[in-house]
């Protein structure tokens, strides 16, 4: 299969932030974990690691919550963790490990390379979302700003587009997750071989203690009526800006199966054409 070229690697290979004392202890933790994986120290042998990654603001935290609350016997952490940190330094208390971090999309080859000689099955679940929704979304850490820039989104799109058809990858859209969680549940269980204790639809009833749900802004039931919130008046100037900075947006929407044409531009409650010409 012919693949499009990837963007420069400088974006995807950012140096991790130094964290005291974890950064100083990491070499020791790696040695201990390696000894556990070789059976030299007591531990549960790791058999499978499922990595949730993909676009920021595309439902990765929501999906992590569904899995941690509704699936049996997972090694979970209730917050965002680097897959390679858990692979090299993580505890070995479960045979199946789950991690979530959107930027791990850029590290899929390295994660595969780490596990290849160890006999651990690694799989990736990529979350994606309508770019109009991603690029008009805000995060609790910066509530007054839009979270993702156009440049960053392009990098995520290129890497998602590169990996989404790989054999060890399952790509799930935020729209499908919100509108049809039952179908997503079936796809995930078939892909991973897991069993569910409760339906993904009922995730709000099974939030694990201590789960970090801040990225959800508010913990609530699934609401498909908000999927097109990007078209609201409050985002008008942002959407005009996106169409200027991201002229390929209509084409990307078609490639992602979200819009069959650019008719959506003429269906907005306000005139975007005149704003672009201004």
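^ structure tokens above, recovered residues below v
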């Amino acid at each position: 299969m012919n693949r499009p070229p990837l963007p420069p690697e400088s974006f995807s290979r950012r140096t991790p932030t130094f964290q005291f004392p974890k950064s100083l202890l990491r070499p020791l933790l790696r040695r201990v974990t390696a000894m556990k994986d070789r059976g030299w120290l007591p531990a549960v042998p790791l058999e499978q690691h499922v990595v949730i990654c993909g676009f920021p603001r595309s439902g990765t935290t929501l999906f992590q919550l569904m899995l941690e609350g509704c699936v049996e016997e997972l090694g979970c952490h209730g917050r965002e963790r680097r897959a390679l940190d858990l692979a090299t330094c993580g505890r070995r208390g479960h045979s199946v490990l789950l991690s979530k971090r959107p930027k791990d999309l850029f590290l899929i080859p390295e994660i595969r390379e780490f596990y290849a000689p160890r006999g651990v099955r690694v799989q990736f679940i990529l979350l994606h979302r309508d770019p109009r929704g991603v690029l008009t979304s805000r995060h609790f850490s910066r509530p007054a700003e839009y979270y993702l820039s156009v440049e960053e989104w392009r990098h995520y799109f290129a890497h998602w587009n590169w990996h989404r058809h790989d054999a060890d990858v399952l790509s799930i859209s935020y729209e499908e997750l919100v509108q049809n969680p039952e179908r997503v549940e079936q796809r995930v269980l078939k892909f991973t071989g897991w069993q569910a204790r409760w339906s993904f639809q009922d995730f709000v009833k099974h939030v694990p203690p201590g789960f970090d749900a801040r990225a959800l802004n508010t913990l609530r039931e699934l609401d498909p009526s908000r999927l097109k919130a990007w078209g609201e008046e409050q985002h008008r100037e942002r959407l005009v800006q996106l169409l200027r900075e991201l002229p390929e947006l209509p084409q990307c929407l078609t490639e992602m199966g979200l819009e069959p044409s650019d008719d959506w531009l003429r269906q907005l409650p306000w005139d975007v054409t005149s704003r672009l010409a201004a």
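The longest helix spans residues 22-37.
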